[in-house]
Automatic annotation (TrEMBL):
<protein>
    <submittedName>
        <fullName>Diguanylate cyclase (GGDEF)-like protein</fullName>
    </submittedName>
</protein>
<feature type="domain" description="EAL">
    <location>
        <begin position="23"/>
        <end position="273"/>
    </location>
</feature>
Length: 275
């Protein structure tokens, strides 16, 4: 390809071509992957504070690529959102999560990440309704996790969708709280059942008093609004003790469990939580 500015070195262009080609190939692979059932859901445990009881699991998608190995969602979800493949992929995630969770021995909550693109799809409510009906999963056991970016585009339609989903009995969690730009307004205007405080706030709490103050304020906000706050990305016991002390209701993170095909051992989680 020719550079738009003829005096720029050409290798930038060929590098861009390569990246573009790799992207196109991955998108093509994505389409076959759905048919080949090359995706799988891994589950990461969440636990309540202070009981240490398992409160649910988050479903996190993985792609077993035939030549590239296990590809993380941060690579292919954004691609699928741009290529238009996210809706069929997301329908697969919702149905798979419902069918798998319906078979769990304990009736824990399953949280599923919902792409902003899928929230804008008018057929979403019907998709969720039929996933619940076909799998037999009780609506109370399903939570959809949404980031703020999902609701800033068409707020009225987003609100309509969330209300219809909630009317069905499922819960809605606000994901990655704190890293967006309209958090407080969004909390006031949308019917969230849970707040997930972004991991970036937890990462520094051992050495950053300001991060602790923010954590404390968000926990207090949750108490005031009567919305439980879950702290994401808890990796160390010291972080767990701070988020507990500051009033968070639940935790998720490598300390209590990595995403995995296997469900967590309740006794082990309880022990880790009591450290
Ligand atoms: P997220 O929803 O914020 O999910 C949490 C991410 O943090 C997951 O990464 C998880 O593996 C990772 N994580 C959990 N505990 C820890 C910890 O203690 N330390 C650190 N450093 N990381 C931790 P993952 O699985 O790579 O997913 C990345 C993002 O991809 C998710 O962020 C979510 O936005 C998106 N995603 C994952 N699965 C799906 C899906 O099925 N549908 C959609 N639309 N998006 C998905
Ligand atoms: Ca999430
Ligand atoms: Ca998150
Ligand atoms: Ca995230």
């Amino acid at each position: 390809a020719k550079s738009a500015h003829s005096n720029e070195p050409c290798f930038y262009d060929s590098q861009m071509d390569d990246a573009l080609k790799a992207r196109r190939e991955l998108i093509a692979d994505l389409r076959t992957a759905l048919e080949a059932e090359a995706f799988e859901l891994h589950y990461q445990v969440q636990a309540a504070i202070p009981s240490g009881e398992i409160s649910g699991y988050e479903a996190l998608i993985r792609w077993r690529h035939p030549t590239q190995g296990l590809i993380p969602p941060s690579i292919f979800i954004p691609l699928a959102e741009k290529s238009g493949d996210i809706v069929p992929l997301s329908i697969w995630v919702i149905r798979q999560a419902c069918f798998e969770a319906a078979l769990w021995p304990n009736r824990h909550i399953i949280s599923v990440n919902l792409s902003p693109v899928h929230l804008a799809d008018p057929r979403l409510v019907e998709t969720v309704r039929s996933a619940l009906a076909d799998s037999g999963l009780a609506p109370e056991r399903l939570t959809l996790e949404l980031t703020e970016s999902a609701i800033i585009h068409d707020r009225r339609f987003a609100l309509e969708q969330l209300r219809a989903l909630k009317a069905m009995g499922i819960a809605i969690a606000l994901d990655d709280f704190g890293v967006g730009y309209s958090s407080l307004d969004v909390l006031r205007s949308f019917p969230f059942d849970r707040i997930k405080l972004d991991a970036s706030f937890v990462a520094e709490i051992e050495h950053d008093e300001q991060a602790v103050s923010i954590l404390r304020s968000v926990a207090a906000l949750g108490t005031t609004l009567n919305i439980p706050v879950l702290a994401e990305g808890v990796e160390q016991a010291a972080q767990l003790s701070i988020v507990s002390r500051e009033g968070c209701s639940a935790v998720q993170g490598y300390l209590i469990g990595h995403p995995s095909r296997a469900l967590a051992d309740a006794e082990q989680v309880r022990q880790t939580m009591s450290l």
